Amino acid sequence: MTMANWENFLKNLGEWQGSFTRMSPQGEVLSQTPSILTLEGLEDNKLVKFRLRRYDNPDYQDPPTQDYSQDYRSLGRQIIFFGTGAFSKGPWQLAPFSEFGAEFGFVDGDRRMRFVQLYDKELSLASLTFIREFRRGSNAQERPTLTVEQLLGTWHCQVYTGYPDWREPEVSGMEIILEQTGDMVEQRITVEGKTSVTQGKVIGNQINFLGSHPSNVLLLPDGASSCTPDRLQLGQPFFGEVGWLVRPNKRQRLIRYYDNRGAWTHSAFVVEYRQ
């Protein structure tokens, strides 16, 4: 474990009140569970005590239905924390006949947003868990539901790429231009002078991007988005992505990449500013 990864983890300290919302792959709400998550730093922040309480009622008055605690003095190598406290966590390897999932987390002031994408043993997207958290005692608010219009325009991006060996993240630049005509959108991504273009169709609360690696971007409450394949295939590279519009002209994204052997290769934290 590097000190930088631990210091970035500490940016999540606090008592966070929120809820776990379980959704279908199409974004339909299946259940909602109020929660209080506490991350407390002790021993000069060399020890972090984790406690998660789940409740039946949103007033948090009744005893919790679940109360789980764990102590952390180090972090597993399958998790990378970036400079804001944002993190990407998941297995090293995609394995046949076993469930597969990845968690993505963001921190912005008195807000946290976390998201879990879970696949079943047949490698089909089974469910999504959307976790919206607010620092207890603050007046932090939930953001509006993300719309296509909020994503249009020219975005200048800083990309921080982290690797499983926890070396210092690499920093690079990228430009994204998203334009809409009718129910179609065009996305132009320019990296190091090379531009790729993809087309997508807006269907309800989704943007379905076509091409050699089709993907669906699900537009969600609180300015969030989830992009992941409906089904994983052994022998094919893939990625999972979650985004969060934290300001009208500032967006953050986390992406976790796997290669054609199903091995986790790297994660990216993208900070985007619209002109």
Number of strands: 19
Number of domains: 1
* Ends distance: 37 Å
What pattern of helices and strands is seen along the backbone?
Answer: HEEEEEEEEEEEEEEEEEEE
Uncertain spans? none
Please write the CATH class name. Answer: Mainly Beta
Strand content: over 45%
Biggest β-sheet strands, sense, barrel: 10 strands, antiparallel, barrel
- Describe the strand arrangement of the main beta sheet, using strand numbers: 10-11-12-13-14-15-16-17-18-19
Taken from the alpha-carbon principal axes, the silhouette is globular
Percent helix range? under 10%
In CATH terms, the superfamily is Calycin beta-barrel core domain
Structural class: mainly beta
Mean pLDDT: 94
Number of helices: 1
CATH topology: Lipocalin
Named at the architecture level, the CATH assignment is: Beta Barrel
User: What value does the Rg take, in angstroms?
Assistant: 19 Å
